# Entry
Amino acid sequence: MNDKPLMPKATAVWLVENTKISFKQIADFCALHELEVKGIADGDVAKGIKAYNPILAGQLTREEIEESSNDINRPLALNKKTLDITTVKKKKLKYIPLSKRQDRPSSALWLIKNYSQLSDGQIGKLVGSTKNTVSLIRKNTYWNSSNLVAKDPVVANLSSQIDIKNAVEKANRRIAREKKEKIKKEKIKKEDWLKKLMKINSFALVGVIMGSKSDWKTMTHCCDTLQKFGVKYEVKVISAHRTPNRLHKFLNQAKKNNIEIIIAGAGGAAHLAGVAASLSTLPVLGVPIESKLKGIDSLLSTVQMPSGIPVGTLAIGKAGAINAALLAISILSVRYNKIHKKLVNYRNNFEKKIPKNPY
# Structure
């Protein structure tokens, strides 16, 4: 590396004009002849050259200039900066010859068939293709799917056996992790469901019963609506056919527990609401649960009651569950002023949400 400063003549002009350093010191520092520096001072040399400040350029420090000004024999020392330049090695892109590129879709198909646990991204990396292309091959929507023949990427020299093994192991770990997380979530969900289901309040005004545990998916909307209005409720799984004794016991204790309305949800041969109405004088609201026949069988089983045993039947599914809760709240609002005020506010807010104009 050269020890002389950048722009030596311009630097010499600045040092002559702004410091008390001798011509010899300036000449040695700028790698010039002493007579050249003298010519610069006399104005004969370097005419028109603009002075270059070595302090701003980081080539000299004020302390260095000060020390050399006081000692005529002390040479100026160039302020050297060491730059730590680190080079990052770029990952070389895997080059695939043109003659081999037609093997990529075939190799992707082979990996999909033999290692279905591999993600589209992993397969793409192994065969040198894109994630989108692999996805199309997996879905059988690739433009040339009909002509593709599965080919081992190792045989096609697109990937090594070790790379495939590592990718498969990584995919298996990912699947195991996802499975573990899914089980954990289901366990938490089940615990939350059981807590909500087993919640019994002696001051409940509404009894919510359902034919099976699977009906909770629909009836939870009913309970959520009751909760929003602050109406306390009791939840039970009771089947009219499979647990008749449990139904009789619940209905016998309903009045003693101050329950005023019963909401019954059932699907298929949905006799729960009808049987509850026949065994109790409390008002019963029926919610038909969606079934294999889209809930039509549940609706007919609930609504087609003989004269003398009424069941207030709501719509099929989620809408019916929500409306059953709202109808129960409306019935209770006649007696409970606090519930009545909440219902009025709900209706007013509900009306505000509907736009006046279609545009």
